[in-house]
Amino acid sequence: MKVVLVDAGGTNIGSVRYALQRLGTDAELTSDAARIRAASHVILPGVGAAAPGMRMLREAGLVDVLRGLTQPVLGVCLGMQLLCERSEESDTACLGVIPATVKRFAEASGLRVPHMGWNTLQVTVPHCLTAGLREGDTAYFVHSYAVPTGPYTLAASEHGTPFSAVVAAGNFMGMQFHPERSAGVGAQLLRNFLSL
Amino acid sequence: MLSRRIVPCLDVRDGQVVKGVRFRDHVVVGEIVELALRYRDEGADELVFYDITASPEGRRVDRNWVERVAREIDIPFCVAGGIRSVDDAREVLHAGADKISINSPALERPALVSEIADAFGVQCVVVGVDSLRDEDGEWRVRQYTGDPSRTRALRKGTLEWIDEVQTLGAGEIVLNCMGTDGVRRGYDIEQLAAARAITRVPLVASGGAGIPMHFAEVFKDADVDAALAASVFHSGDIGIPALKRELRMQGIEVRL
């Protein structure tokens, strides 16, 4: 197994790397196309905004590299949003491997945005990635934009409206929350990904 | 459903966790990573580390302990103290902090809030507001509260400042009510409810927790998203598991 973390300037790369180390996996941090293609598992972390995130992937020449991967790929938080077709955040074209448009949480009375804190994961489609999740399990979210629920949704959560917490389209998967900061539940989900 | 968060706050001075009463007279209560792990194990939802001397002394937070915490714990944590530029914020975030909190430096130069939000997203920008009610009945902002000899009372109204920073790009507000801090008679419900009414981002209550009922009150009556406390947790007077069971019995959504 050779896990790589795609270095596109995101600030939570260290945290994801430490989480993998706690599971006994040493992941390489790289923006090198050949190393990414050769990995058994690819993780695209990312905290920040869609437009600078995509710009960094373009500047590193990684857009087509990531689109062409056939091994398991996991996008975390913004990384998951970048796997979608578009994001309403600065109307940004993304990688387009998950057929969804990322939308801002609608303004609603009393609804706090960013959605920040521990929220319940509701499994909608059973999948190896969510194996072991129990009713009422929670994960830590912090985001202002979200992927609506759809055929690609494996687990949903709710903040005013339902949204995708875990998605998959073939080998491309995503988690909107931060598994690296979601205690035992997050560790279980990362272990599931590494066992794919 | 989104849970209400319980957030132990660890004031850091010279690499150790300390606690004072009404922001004065600090005593050492323990080692940073050791306390962080204890709170993680007990079910804390998030941790805040305030380097209380960094800002008044004009130095930045020491990234070594940030990295040690990031390696060990698997819940989110926020770091505050002496972050006065995008570069300072980057260093702390790259060391593994999930959020940074700015207080005095945001008062020195409010554009700092936007600069950090633009660089890293609003979700990692927390603005800490230290507030005290003046004799005329107005809540106003205090600066450099980490060092009593340098603490300044500003003309700026607390609610006005909260509104200003959320427009600039704060993703969360921590309101430290200095009048109730450290005396354990309950959160300042009146002030927090007034702040909640004008705040669109998550609001964290700080200052005054003494018994579990105070947490229930601040969630029910001020509708805050998180409640922060230090001394009641450090002393062991309130255990987080028992606190959360009590809150759930009162119908408040918490992570058990």
Automatic annotation (TrEMBL), chain A:
The keyword Nucleotide-binding does not apply. Keywords: Amino-acid biosynthesis, Cytoplasm, Glutamine amidotransferase, Histidine biosynthesis, Hydrolase, Lyase. It catalyses: 5-[(5-phospho-1-deoxy-D-ribulos-1-ylimino)methylamino]-1-(5-phospho-beta-D-ribosyl)imidazole-4-carboxamide + L-glutamine = D-erythro-1-(imidazol-4-yl)glycerol 3-phosphate + 5-amino-1-(5-phospho-beta-D-ribosyl)imidazole-4-carboxamide + L-glutamate + H(+); L-glutamine + H2O = L-glutamate + NH4(+). It is found in: Cytoplasm. GO terms for cellular component: cytoplasm. This is Imidazole glycerol phosphate synthase subunit HisH. One of its GO terms (biological process) is L-histidine biosynthetic process. Its main location: cytoplasm. IGPS catalyzes the conversion of PRFAR and glutamine to IGP, AICAR and glutamate. The HisH subunit catalyzes the hydrolysis of glutamine to glutamate and ammonia as part of the synthesis of IGP and AICAR. The resulting ammonia molecule is channeled to the active site of HisF. Heterodimer of HisH and HisF. The keyword Hydrolase applies. Pathway: Amino-acid biosynthesis; L-histidine biosynthesis; L-histidine from 5-phospho-alpha-D-ribose 1-diphosphate: step 5/9. InterPro entries: Class_I_gatase-like, GATASE, Imidazole-glycPsynth_HisH. Its EC number is 4.3.2.10, 3.5.1.2. GO terms for molecular function: glutaminase activity; imidazoleglycerol-phosphate synthase activity; lyase activity. It comes from the Bacteria. The gene is hisH. The active site is at C77, H178, E180.
From TrEMBL, chain B:
InterPro entries: Aldolase_TIM, His_biosynth, HisF, IGPS_HisA/HisF, RibuloseP-bd_barrel. Gene3D superfamilies: Aldolase class I (3.20.20.70). It catalyses: 5-[(5-phospho-1-deoxy-D-ribulos-1-ylimino)methylamino]-1-(5-phospho-beta-D-ribosyl)imidazole-4-carboxamide + L-glutamine = D-erythro-1-(imidazol-4-yl)glycerol 3-phosphate + 5-amino-1-(5-phospho-beta-D-ribosyl)imidazole-4-carboxamide + L-glutamate + H(+). Its main location: cytoplasm. The keyword rRNA-binding does not apply. GO terms for biological process: L-histidine biosynthetic process. It holds the Pfam family His_biosynth. The active site is at D11, D130. One of its GO terms (molecular function) is lyase activity. Its EC number is 4.3.2.10. Pathway: Amino-acid biosynthesis; L-histidine biosynthesis; L-histidine from 5-phospho-alpha-D-ribose 1-diphosphate: step 5/9. The keyword Heme does not apply. Keywords: Amino-acid biosynthesis, Cytoplasm, Histidine biosynthesis, Lyase. GO terms for cellular component: cytoplasm. It is found in: Cytoplasm. Belongs to the HisA/HisF family. Heterodimer of HisH and HisF. NCBIfam families: hisF. IGPS catalyzes the conversion of PRFAR and glutamine to IGP, AICAR and glutamate. The HisF subunit catalyzes the cyclization activity that produces IGP and AICAR from PRFAR using the ammonia provided by the HisH subunit. PANTHER family: IMIDAZOLE GLYCEROL PHOSPHATE SYNTHASE HISHF, IMIDAZOLE GLYCEROL PHOSPHATE SYNTHASE SUBUNIT HISF/H IGP SYNTHASE SUBUNIT HISF/H. This is Imidazole glycerol phosphate synthase subunit HisF. It comes from Luteibacter rhizovicinus DSM 16549. The gene is hisF.
